[in-house]
Design a protein that fits this description.
By secondary structure, the protein is of the alpha+beta class. It is about 30% helix and about 30% strand. Helix 2 runs antiparallel to helix 3. The relative contact order is 0.19.
Length: about 140
């Protein structure tokens, strides 16, 4: 495997694109050797779903598309980023007892931490942002 692999897809900011993003990421990671029936793969699919949902729901129509980027470095570190063109950084919302949404960032942070990873947010040149998750890439067939 090469020291560095990358993949990217840009999708319309539409609720149907969330499942497309999830399928795309699953396909790329399978090509890179990740067994799709692992807890690690489940965590990645959930992270992608939450980030893509945020890009669709919380950009208030200011981001007509969002981009999912994957980067695998030396089979040691997986970077997963979702970019949109809305300038507002994601934030945790107070969790109300009967609240149906607003827990995405909490879920993402917990999953990243549980897997030994971290979350960062970087601004883009056009005024948007990318939410990055960096995760250790364990042996693809494990965990």
């Amino acid at each position: 495997m090469a020291d560095h692999q990358e993949a990217s897809v840009t999708l319309p900011s539409d609720p149907a694109s969330v499942s497309s993003a999830r399928r795309y990421v699953a396909g790329v990671l399978t090509e890179w050797g990740l067994a799709i029936d692992t807890e690690f793969a489940d965590s990645i699919r959930l992270i992608v779903s939450e980030l893509a949902t945020n890009a669709v729901q919380h950009t208030f129509g200011q981001s007509p598309t969002f981009t999912v980027d994957l980067r695998l470095e030396r089979e040691e570190q997986l970077h997963l980023g979702v970019t949109d063109s809305h300038p507002r950084r994601p934030r945790r919302l107070p969790a109300a007892v009967q609240q149906d949404n607003g827990r995405g960032m909490v879920i993402i942070r917990c999953l990243a931490k549980e897997r030994g990873g971290r979350l960062t947010v970087t601004p883009t040149a056009d005024g948007g942002k990318t939410v990055w998750i960096a995760l250790p890439w364990s042996s693809p067939g494990q965990s």
